Automatic annotation (TrEMBL), chain A:
Pfam families: BPD_transp_1. SUPFAM superfamilies: MetI-like (SSF161098). It comes from the Bacteria. Gene3D superfamilies: MetI-like. This is ABC transporter permease.
From TrEMBL, chain B:
PROSITE patterns: ABC_TM1, PROKAR_LIPOPROTEIN. This is ABC transporter permease. Keywords: Cell membrane, Membrane, Transmembrane, Transmembrane helix, Transport. It is found in: Cell membrane.
Length: 297, 292
């Protein structure tokens, strides 16, 4: 960090001596940085404030300044949040629903994209169109029939309803992102493989999948974020605590503990931390995926 | 080559699982929503076919139009705020040091669940202990607003976390578009004596106008579908002052068990979304635009 700052300063110095810009333009640049920094504070500070009150007692929240640091950090709030109110159970439910849905989505989407871009058949444009139209559908318009469909086949309050819904609703976006990448793979590769007597399945699993790992990673991350944060499906299809995810569980937990600010703060922090860690490690890929997946509103 | 790569069984095997999923979970439900809208049904008991009664009731339902109005108001705010994001993106694209870091910081709230955002901002808006009112009181404001409990300002209050959530997302989209502006064009303008402001507004802005149009669709249609944040923060209240189309549908179906009427609202939501998408594209597309 200090290295970065030093580099920045030396760059700045170089530029100033080089160009000898007027005071006015330097003031203007300063103003731009000020605007950008205020916006950065606006984006970050609420989360920092959440972290502060997650470590406070109620008394401190109600009496001390909201901008003060906790005098005696209540790490116990986190222990309380984790063990009470099933948060640990919800956490692991979220993890495995997310992973299962991401694996299914990417496998099915890769199958479809491979068939559409590499294989020869008549209806491929039509099938692609069906998936792309899916991008425009508001999921709330499907919610009531989905609920009664899952009820009829006995999948209400069953994790399968969640995993299948996540997969179906993420397929269009995933296929759209994969499509652009598949179109750049030269056909010579699989022509050579066919001449060598390779079967289609071998081409798919041994050539196409490994070649597309970078874009698979990007779509996987975007899918994970969407699934981890999803609310409506779980809130509608799942009744019992046993199968709730963190997003829905946190919501009902916070609803119960209306007045215990510390516990609420700690619970929210627990639900946010995995995403923040993923962001610190994978920010470039996340930025890339967000830009690629921008069609999803 | 062709015989291997056009094997019908393989194609079917690869395409059917995904097709079956979107067919059963997206397309059939869409059609069923329209049909359920013609039923008198509580979701469990007998279904009674009542034709277009629900739909004609919907046309005269002032609550539905109020919720639609709220949805469009949020859409309008969201569209207007695109100008702010665009301005920030243009600043970031003008050789700002650390632009990449700024963009990443702005994106952080977009990664959080709407539920976490809603819970956090309910606390920030808390009339007595929240961050905002504590600050206002310490600055000497006597009667700070009640924010989410005041029907007159609740929609504006809700819009603040919406900006907070989506700012980074749109800035990333604009950044990707601005990256595609050819360096030679900018350089040529600079040699001709254009100021940085002129370069931003006269050179870069026109070149990313097609992306700007796409984001208008995203912002407007995205707002029409808004649900999670409002459902968790206010539940559509106080006194239904923040009810939007999706929350109205959800309440009718899953709180009051009016599955028939709820479906009619859901179908109306679908139709409105499709019409708005089509309309904006029609109004903003010229034939030289890049098609998404």
């Amino acid at each position: 960090m200090s290295e970065f700052a030093a580099k920045k300063q030396s760059d700045l110095g170089k530029e100033m001596s080089k160009s000898g810009r007027s005071v006015g333009s330097r003031l203007g640049t300063g103003l731009l940085y000020l605007i950008l920094s205020i916006l950065a504070v606006f984006q970050i500070y609420p989360l920092f404030w959440l972290f502060l009150f997650s470590l406070k007692t109620n008394q401190e929240v109600f009496s001390a300044s909201p901008f003060s640091f906790p005098q005696d950090p209540q790490w116990g709030n986190y222990a309380k949040a984790w063990t009470q109110g099933h948060i640990n159970l919800y956490f692991w439910n979220s993890v495995w629903y997310t992973v299962a849905a991401v694996v299914l989505t990417i496998l099915f989407a890769s199958f479809v994209t491979f068939a559409i871009t590499r294989m020869y058949w008549k209806l491929n444009r039509l099938v692609l169109g069906l998936f792309m139209i899916g991008l425009m559908i508001p999921l709330h318009s499907t919610l009531i029939p989905l609920f009664s469909f899952f009820k009829n086949i006995g999948l209400i309050d069953n994790p399968l309803s969640i995993i299948l819904s996540y997969t179906a609703f993420n397929l269009p976006l995933t296929i759209m992102i994969l499509l652009g990448f598949y179109q750049t793979i030269p056909r010579e590769i699989e022509e050579a493989a066919v001449i060598d007597g390779c079967s289609v399945h071998r081409i798919f699993f041994r050539i196409a999948l490994p070649l597309t790992t970078p874009v698979i990673a990007t779509t996987a991350i975007i899918n994970m974020i969407y699934n981890w944060n999803e609310f409506v499906f779980v809130n509608t299809f799942i009744n019992s605590d046993r199968w709730k995810t963190l997003t829905v569980g946190v919501n009902s937990f916070v609803g119960q503990y209306l007045t215990d600010w510390g516990a609420i703060g700690a619970t929210l922090m627990i639900s946010i931390i995995p995403i923040l860690i993923a962001f610190i490690i994978l920010s470039n890929r996340i930025v890339e995926g967000m830009a690629a997946g921008s069609v999803k509103g | 080559m062709k015989t291997v790569m056009s094997n019908k069984w393989t194609i079917a095997l690869y395409v059917w699982p995904a097709l079956l999923l979107i067919g059963c979970l997206i397309y059939i439900p869409l059609i069923m929503t329209g049909y359920y809208g013609m039923l008198e049904w509580n979701g469990f008991g007998p279904r009674e076919f009542i034709g277009l009664e629900n739909y004609s009731r919907l046309m005269q339902d002032s609550m539905f139009w109020k919720s639609a109005y709220h949805s469009f108001l949020l859409g309008l705010f969201s569209t207007a705020s695109l100008l702010l994001y665009l301005a920030v993106s243009l600043i970031l694209a003008s050789k700002i040091k650390g632009a990449e870091l700024f963009r990443k910081i702005y994106l952080i709230p977009m990664l959080l669940s709407s539920v976490a955002i809603a819970q956090l901002w309910s606390k920030i808006f808390d009339p007595s202990n929240g961050m905002i009112n504590r600050l206002l009181i310490s600055l000497g404001v006597e009667n700070p607003p009640l924010w989410l409990s005041d029907p007159n300002i609740v929609l504006f209050a809700i819009f603040i976390p919406i900006i907070w959530q989506y700012a980074g997302f749109y800035i990333i989209i604009y950044a990707a578009a601005l990256k595609n502006v050819p360096e030679e064009v900018v350089e040529a303008a600079r040699i001709d004596g254009a100021t940085p402001l002129q370069i931003a507004l006269r050179v870069k802005l026109p070149l990313i106008s097609s992306v700007f149009k796409v984001t208008i669709v995203l912002a407007l249609v995205g707002s029409l579908k808004y649900f999670d944040l409002i459902y968790v923060m206010t539940g559509g209240g106080p006194n239904r002052a923040s009810e939007v189309m999706a929350s109205y549908m959800y309440g009718e179906a899953f709180t009051k068990y009016n599955f028939g009427y709820g479906s009619a609202i859901g179908f109306a939501l679908l139709v409105i979304c499709l019409i708005v998408t089509w309309l904006i594209r029609k109004l903003t597309t010229s034939k030289d635009d890049y098609q998404y």
